[in-house]
Amino acid sequence: MTTQIARQAPAVLPGPNEPCWCGSGSKYKKCHRGADAVEARKKGADVQRRGISPGIISPRRSVPAHIPRPDYAETGRPVRSPELPEVKSPDVIARMRRAGQAAAKVLQMTGAAVRPGITTDELDAIAHEAYIQLGGYPSTLNYHGYPKSLCTSVNEVICHGIPDSRPLEEGDIINLDITIFLEGVHGDCSATFFVGKVDPDSERLVRVTRECLDLGIAAVKPGRPINDIGRVIEEHATKNGMSVVRAYCGHGIGERFHSPLQIPHYYEAGADTIMKPGMTFTVEPMINLGHWQHRSWDDGWTAVTADGSRSAQFEHTLLVTEQGAEILTLP
């Protein structure tokens, strides 16, 4: 029986594209970089921070009776019905433009309230009231039992973070994921915000993630396969020493919150559906500073990076046109 001695990271770490110090033969950015960043934060070499942990979740907020709601609003279960066409009619597209603009307004209003000290539950209250003011229903509320009106994903939370009693801290980053049900259709968008002053790595992560979204949107072309989108996103993230989350992807959207159409944000050869004018779907890359793997909390919703590294996301709902893509979720 032999005993292996664990190697420790050296005082001077290699560059992103240099061999990892552990001797694995992999590039540092694909091996220990994310874990080393987490360890550095623990030791105070960067900004002192704790990992995110669940807070107290307040009771579900009510929606006035006059607000039209989706089929799952009371039961939590979307009604099974025949598949709807991915290419939308002019009437559906017109309604989706209005729903998308409303979602963008809610995102603006909620994002303006992000600051150190505010709780994610308070952000949920702001978004909830904004949906109602615009005559819409919060699409996430009771969707498969989800308890809140938006998703608030902080630091290492990749997606589906549940608003709770945790106050935001200086140096956090937070993704606000907004979806509204208005005029019988859904509009879905998200953005990542800085909470006060953040460290350079978080700043770079958010910038690169936004660039990934822009490149993904530019890849939307009629006659081309869906996997063109993931190809350019993965290339840009990898070039910058980051990784693309694989467990979650973009999706078809319209009369339903999620249709069967899936939009991977990494290159997936099997995602060969041809884009056609009239299709509507989301592009919403989730980019990690470290590894792409995730783990899930016991709440059944919150997904976090497996190595504790930070994650960022941006999202728009898109319409495929004869020329390319129209962004429906602009204010």
How is the secondary structure organized here?
Elements: H1 33-43, H2 90-111, H3 120-133, E1 137-138, E2 151-154, E3 157-159, E4 173-182, E5 185-194, H4 200-218, H5 227-239, E6 243-244, E7 250-252, E8 259-263, E9 280-283, E10 286-288, E11 294-296, E12 303-305, E13 311-313, E14 316-320, E15 325-327
Antiparallel strand pairs: 1-4, 2-4, 3-12, 4-5, 6-10, 7-8, 9-14, 10-13, 11-12, 14-15
Helix pairs in contact: 2-3, 4-5
Descriptive notes:
By secondary structure, the chain is α+β, with helices and mostly antiparallel strands. The chain is built from five helices and 15 strands. Strands 1, 2, 4 and 5 form a four-stranded antiparallel sheet that branches. Helix 2 crosses helix 3 and helix 4 packs antiparallel against helix 5. It starts with 32 loop residues before the first helix and ends with a strand.
In brief:
The protein has 5 helices and 15 strands. With 331 residues, it is of the alpha+beta class. The strands form 5 sheets. Strands 1, 2, 4 and 5 form a 4-stranded antiparallel beta sheet that branches.
